[in-house]
Amino acid sequence: MLISVIIPLYNGHEVIVKCLDSVFSSETDHNIEVIVVDDCSTDESVDLINRKGYDIYLMKNDKNHGYAYTVNRGLTVFHGDAAFLLNQDTELEKNVIQLLASRLFEDDLTGIIAPQLVNLDGTVQPSVRCFPRHSDIIYHHLGLSSIFRDNAELNRWKMPDFDHISERYVDQPAFSAVMIKRTAINEVGLMDLDFPLFFNDVDYCRRTIAAGWKILFYPKAKVKHQRGQAISQRKVQSIYLSHLAFIEYLHKYFRNLRYVIPNFLCSFLLVVSAHIRALYHLLKKSSTSKEPVS
Hints:
By secondary structure, the chain is of the alpha/beta class. Helices cover 39% and strands 21% of the residues. The protein folds into two domains: 2-130 and 161-226, Spore Coat Polysaccharide Biosynthesis Protein SpsA, Chain A (Alpha-Beta Complex); 233-290.
């Protein structure tokens, strides 16, 4: 069996070597091809990869297109029985590819499998959510999910009651590391370019389940993830883009006339909260830069 590892790259010189080293040190019975797609990095990422001499297929975008376009380029050229989408800020345990591939092909219904993500200190990183509803957005923005943490309805979206150590079928795992069967990709298609950076994973999972496939969270396989490494390079822009993508998601999947008012209300909340988050980040950044150096 051939597993194609697809890594979208953007200004990842601090992390990409550890990621690739972990891939090439994997202990697996399967053959591996590695495809790295550079999204017009402005740092030394590409030069660093070339100097290391990895046996990879390196593709370069003509300009910065975003995550979805970059992943799609890899998905159009891979040769494997499955595509393993991997963020540049991840590191694999040696048995991850073997575990994921073996479990993925145990049955015909599972189209996507996701490992447990762990922080660099080894603690478990929450990485699974339910598909968001209008009510989830309202609960979250009014603070109800934070006030009533034990209420299952108010906290349904982000699944705080899930321990992330149990195997289960889920709606939406983080796409920091997911393995997808070729047959599922052939049926579901490529990522929707209307979601260039954010919510492309939510959209893809929703389309996958709509096509009759299941998505499995498989915690026996563990992947270290330095959360937000690429996004942190453009934090304020990322805040606005993520909220706008959320609004795009609502308008794509809730088109019926009865959703006009819920869509408007949730869009308003998302726009307001984007401004608040961006302002908070800028003020925090400003106060940090003014702190005296001891």
